[in-house]
Amino acid sequence: MPAPFSEESTRIMGVTYMARSDKARAELGWKTRPLQTGMLETFKWIEATEPPPSPAQAHEKQVAALVLLGTAVLLLLWLMGRRDRQA
């Protein structure tokens, strides 16, 4: 199966994010690890560095959830009424 981008096309674009990790391994001692491990570490870092939501933000989330729920209920009722009229 051909590669999605040929070497020539990436050269024409002038930018490529494809790279080898040899230099990072040699100079920085970088090692690969499972994706799940990296994601869990990232989530822990975000939790540690992000401030907790303010009461206003928490209230805004609750209001948004209620609006979404109400919208879903209205859509369901509309669909049920439409189906009954077609039958």
Rg calculated over all Cα atoms: 25 Å
- Unreliable stretches covering 5 or more consecutive residues: none
Shape: flat
Q: Structural class per helix/strand content?
A: mainly alpha
| Major sheet | none
- Determine the number of helices (DSSP H or I, runs of at least 4 residues): 4
- State the share of residues found in helices, binned by percent: over 70%
User: How much of the polypeptide forms β-strand, as a percent range?
Assistant: under 5%
SSE ordering: HHHH
Number of domains: 1
**Annotation, overall tally of beta strands:** 0
Kindly state the mean pLDDT as a whole number?
A: 88
Q: How far apart, in Å, are the first and last alpha carbons? A: 51 Å
Concise synopsis of the structure shown:
It is built from 4 helices and no strands. With 87 residues, it is mostly helical.
Task: Describe the overall structure.
The structure is a single chain. By secondary structure, the chain is an all-alpha fold. The protein has one domain (7-86). It is built from 4 helices and no strands. The protein has helices spanning 7-13, 22-28, 35-49, 55-86. The radius of gyration is 25 Å and the shape is flat. 0% of the residues are buried. The model has no long low-confidence stretch (mean pLDDT 88).
